[in-house]
């Protein structure tokens, strides 16, 4: 039986078999989303997450239920077939923060402020039992900058082992402070504006299935150092200060962690975007690399990351037009890796 037939049977089993199906934009994963329009005017979203492609809907269900219990707006789960990888979930609409900010630039400040407030609420709650995003996890993810970006740019596997040691020394200092839930992709293309709701519930949350226990700086880095859109420096500083004022954390300690996890995160993304092009044939991610590179340089300016600056300068080439074109030229050709 085909995947399409499996999806049809699932929808029939939960009373949506005759709904009109309209594809929604996907993401970097193997998940697929369709909006369903029922004859009574109601809508829902079908998440199709094929287990044979490494997808698992159970974490999404668990974290969605936890977020809703905190008074936040994650999609309600209407029906599920966890074994087959199908969920019928609440339709939170199309008003992505990223789109709202383009259409209505004057809303940028209140939207970011609402996102920071929602983040603070999330961090105030006792987290569920999750794996820890510690140095043993984060360092190998950052190594992707060497495995994929450096290699794709014609590098010779130079400096990776020393990089791993130095980054581990820096990141592991925070391993005792991984005490809140981090969604890991908390940014403007995963947040929906729900103005008909109130307070932090006005922020619709998506793509949180990879949540772990992490440092409180991590998700703030995610939204301020957004790989997909430019955040004005004044806005970034305003939102960081809003967070500090709301939480009362020590600014110096927080800013150190912010630089460290900002560096780790953006090195991971640098390698991830190169991999999405070289392995998965998604060339458009290469266009985002220069912005990610600029965040890496910003984070290397903090004293906490100074030990890595000479090594990364020597081993990771800046994303010149020639390098970006080389990545695109080899798009999809590294499928065996």
Strand-helix topology:
Elements (H helix, E strand, L loop, with lengths): L2 H11 L6 E4 L8 E6 L5 E6 L9 H12 L7 E5 L4 E4 L7 H7 L4 H17 L10 H8 L1 H9 L7 H12 L8 E3 L8 E3 L9 E3 L6 E3 L3 H7 L8 H15 L3 H28 L10 H12 L8 H7 L5 H9 L8
Antiparallel strand pairs: 1-2, 2-3, 3-5, 4-5, 6-9, 7-8
Helix pairs in contact: 4-9, 5-7, 5-10, 6-10, 8-10, 10-11
N- to C-terminal separation? Answer: 30 Å
Unreliable residue runs:
none
Helix count from the secondary structure assignment? 13
H-E order: HEEEHEEHHHHHEEEEHHHHHH
Strand order of the largest sheet: 1-2-3-5-4
Task: Tell me the number of strands.
Answer: 9
What proportion of the residues form beta strands (DSSP E)?
5-15%
Q: Which whole number gives the mean pLDDT?
A: 95
Structural class: alpha+beta
Principal-axes geometry comes out as globular
Largest sheet: 5 strands, antiparallel
**What does the radius of gyration come to?**
20 Å
> Helical amount among residues, as a percent range?
40-55%
Description:
- This protein has 337 residues and is an alpha+beta fold.
- The protein contains 13 helices and 9 strands.
- It has helices at 3-13, 58-69, 97-103, 108-124, 135-142, 144-152, 160-171, 218-224, 233-247, 251-278, 289-300, 309-315, 321-329; strands spanning 20-23, 32-37, 43-48, 77-81, 86-89, 180-182, 191-193, 203-205, 212-214.
- The strands form 3 sheets. A 5-stranded antiparallel sheet has the order 1-2-3-5-4, sandwiched between helices. The protein has a two-stranded antiparallel ribbon with strand order 6-9.
- Helix 8 packs across helix 10.
- The radius of gyration is 20 Å and the shape is globular.
- The mean pLDDT is 95.
């Amino acid at each position: 039986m085909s995947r399409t037939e499996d999806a049809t049977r699932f929808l029939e089993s939960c009373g949506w078999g005759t709904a009109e199906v309209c594809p929604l934009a996907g993401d970097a994963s193997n998940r697929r989303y369709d909006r369903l329009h029922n004859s009574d005017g109601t809508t829902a979203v079908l998440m199709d997450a094929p287990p044979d492609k490494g997808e698992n809907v159970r974490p999404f269900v668990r974290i969605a239920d936890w977020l809703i219990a905190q008074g936040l707006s994650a999609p309600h789960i209407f029906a599920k077939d966890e074994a087959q990888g199908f969920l019928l979930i609440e339709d939170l609409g199309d008003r992505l923060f990223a789109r709202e900010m383009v259409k209505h630039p004057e809303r940028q400040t209140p939207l970011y402020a609402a996102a920071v407030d929602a983040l603070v609420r999330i961090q105030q709650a006792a987290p569920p039992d999750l794996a820890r995003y510690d140095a043993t996890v984060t360092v190998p993810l950052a190594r992707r900058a060497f495995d994929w970006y450096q290699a794709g740019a014609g590098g010779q596997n130079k400096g990776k082992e020393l990089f791993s040691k130095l980054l581990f020394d820096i990141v592991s200092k925070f391993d005792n402070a991984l005490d809140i839930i981090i969604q890991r992709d908390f940014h403007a293309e995963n947040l929906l504006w729900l103005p008909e709701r109130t307070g932090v519930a006005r922020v619709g949350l998506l793509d949180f299935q990879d949540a772990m226990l992490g440092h409180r700086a991590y998700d703030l880095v995610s939204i301020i150092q957004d790989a997909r859109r430019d955040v004005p420096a004044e806005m970034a500083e305003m939102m960081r200060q809003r967070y500090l004022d709301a939480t009362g954390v020590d600014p110096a300690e927080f800013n150190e962690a912010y630089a460290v996890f900002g560096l780790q995160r953006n090195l991971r993304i640098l390698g991830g975007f190169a991999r999405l092009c070289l392995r998965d044939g998604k060339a458009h991610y290469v266009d985002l690399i220069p912005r990610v590179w600029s965040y890496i340089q910003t984070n290397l300016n903090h004293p906490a990351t100074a030990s890595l600056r000479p090594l990364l300068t020597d081993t990771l080439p800046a994303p010149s037009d020639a390098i970006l074109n080389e990545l695109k030229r080899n798009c999809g050709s590294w499928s065996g890796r």
